[in-house]
Amino acid sequence: MDLTVSFSLTSSAIVAAFPLDSLFSTQGIMIMLLAAYAVAMWMFLTSAPKVYTIMVSDLEIARQFYEGMLELPAADVPLHYYYNYEQTLGGAGIDPLYLSSASLGAPTTQGLGGSDGLWYTLKKNTQLHIISGASLGHKNRQRHVGFDRDGLEAILLRVQALGVKYKIRREKPLNFLVKDIEGRTIEMAEVSS
C-alpha cells in the first residue's frame, strides 16, 4: 500500500510540473518538434561518413590511380553533400600555389562526367572525394592536394599495404611521391594551415 501512495505522489508531482494543457499548447508542441528535429539531426550527422577531399590536376589520371593502383571501390555521394556542403569550404584558406589559374574562378567540383567529382570508399564509414583544380607540380608532376592530414595518411597506408613504390619528401606538412601504373610521378601534398 505504501508503494501505491508513493507512485500516486510521484505521478502527481510530474503532472504538476508538466501540466498536460501546456504540453499540448502551441508552444509545447513547437518545443517537442524542435527537440525531435534536434535528435533527428544528431542521428543523421553522427551516421554520416567522414569525407576527405583531395584536389587533383587531372581527374582521369586520378581515376586510373585510385581505382587501378589503390583498388578503391566507388562510393555513392553522401546525403549531406547533396546540399552543397563542399562549396562552403571556399578557397580563402588554400595556398594559391596549389591551384591552377583557370580554377580560381570556377567551381571546384566540376570534373569528369558530372559535377561532383569522384567518390571512393577509403575505409569503413570513410570516403575519399576527388575534385579537380590543383595545378601541375614541379616537372609536370600530377599533384594531389589534401586538406586533411588524416586523409593523406590513410592514402599513404593504402599505398604501403599494396606495395606501391613511394618516397616521403617531408613529414610536416606531409608530402610524398608515388609512381602510378604508367610510370608518372604523383605528388601527394598536404595543405599546411
UniProtKB/TrEMBL annotation:
Keywords: Membrane, Transmembrane, Transmembrane helix
InterPro entries according to UniProt: Glyas_Bleomycin-R_OHBP_Dase
Highest taxon of the lineage: Bacteria
Record field: transmembrane: 27-45
Name of the protein: Glyoxalase-like domain protein
Organism of origin: Oxynema aestuarii AP17
